[in-house]
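User: Predict SCP2 domain-containing protein's structure from this.
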Amino acid sequence: MLGQIFYKNMYLYILNMSQTQEYLFPSKEWADEWCKLLNGSKEYYEASKTAPWDSVVLVSTNVPEKVRATLIEMYKKGEAKADSVDFNSTAGAIKLNIKEGRCLGTEFHTDMSKVVGSLILEAPYDTWLKIIQGKLDVTVALLGGSIKIKKGSLTELARYTNAAVIMSNMSRKIKSKILA
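Assistant:
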């Protein structure tokens, strides 16, 4: 009972915080906010606590020039963080370090040579954007081939469909700044 009250209060606090500040998508700051929301969700914890991955990486290809230019400018001014930067890259990757239903931290990369993870999913920027805007269901995107599994297996991922749906729903709660 006490645990349920804690999760509910933590979730409401985090949800309130995420609705007041805007986070550029994609960015390290956006990923950090997503991590906080996931940690405040008992449903996510229950759905993912036995997941076999220690990290989930979402690779975004074909990032629009306007988004890339804004991120580069923000990096140069020290207004945005990244774990690796390649100013010529047209891709970006958000990595969630996870364990037993908890998000332990995030990474953001534009240098794809630095991206490693136990589950790597890749899709065009527009596909991820549609998912976080609620215009595309993540399971439809996975099964329809819009999201490619670069590392990991569909069979294993299918066992955690509920966790993927919850992650998708949580991403929609972030007040995202979209530049495309």
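The first helix runs from residue 2 to 20.
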